[in-house]
Amino acid sequence: MARYVILSDLTDEGAKTLKKNPDRVKEVNTELKNMGIDVLDQYIVLGDFDFLTIVDCESEKMILKAIVEQLSRGSIKTRTYRIIPVNQFIESLK
Predict the structure, then answer these.
(1) How many distinct structural domains can be found in the chain?
(2) pLDDT tens track for 13-55
(3) Residue 53's closest CA among 3, 87, 16?
């Protein structure tokens, strides 16, 4: 499994949806789970982004498909990064 961090910004439409249905955040996490992506942690960010989500996923193809699905709805804009645990990085240098 590969780990990714997804930084998300709500669009105006996404903010309206969230105001009407705050549980939509959890619904999206369930949708991601159904696509084979495990949401490990999620935070509201006070700053340049609205959400920070950490996920595990089997492949880049799978994460890309899920991100495009979410983006196609027009509710969010995202930046997705592959992240590597520090211990794994250290081991790779030995």
Answers:
(1) 1
(2) 999 999 999 999 999 999 999 999 999 999 999 999 999 999 9
(3) 3
CATH of the domain at 42: 3.30.70.260
For residue 18, give its domain range.
Answer: 2-93
* Whole-angstrom distance, CA of residue 14 vs CA of residue 26: 14
Q: Which residues contact 33 (CB under 8 A, 6 or more apart)?
A: 39
* Exposed/middle/buried for residue 63 (C-beta within 10 Å: 0-12, 13-18, 19+): buried
Paired with 52 in beta bridges are 7, 43
For residues 34 and 14, what is the distance between their CA atoms, to the nearest angstrom?
21
Q: Where are the alpha helices (DSSP H) in 11-72?
A: 12-20, 24-34, 60-71
DSSP-derived secondary structure letter, 37: -
Q: Cβ–Cβ contacts within 10 Å for residue 32, how many?
A: 21
pTM above 0.70, yes or no: yes
